[in-house]
Amino acid sequence: MKKRLMAIVVSISLSMSVVGMSFGAGFQIPEQGAASVAMGMGGIGKADDLSAAYQNPAGLIQSTGTQIFVNSGGISPRATYTRTGYDSIENKSDLILVPSLMLSSDFGKWENLVLAVGINAQFGLRNEYDDMGPQRYISNNISLVTIYVGPYAAWQIKPNISIGAGIQYVHASAEIGQKINYGGVLNPMLNENPDYDGILDITDAVDNTVAGNLGLLWKAAENLQVGLTWRSGVDLDLEGDVTLDIPAAITALSGGLMQSINTTGATTLSLPQIVGAGLAFQATDGLELIADLNWLNWSVYENIDFDFSDNTPYFPDTENPRDWEDTWTFRLGGEYMLKEHIALRAGYLFDQSPIPDKSIGPELPTNDRHGISAGVGYAWNNMTLDIAYAHLFIKDRSVSRNIRHTQPIGDYETSANIFAASLGFTF
Question: Which residues are the signal sequence here (predicted)?
Answer without folding.
Answer: 1-24
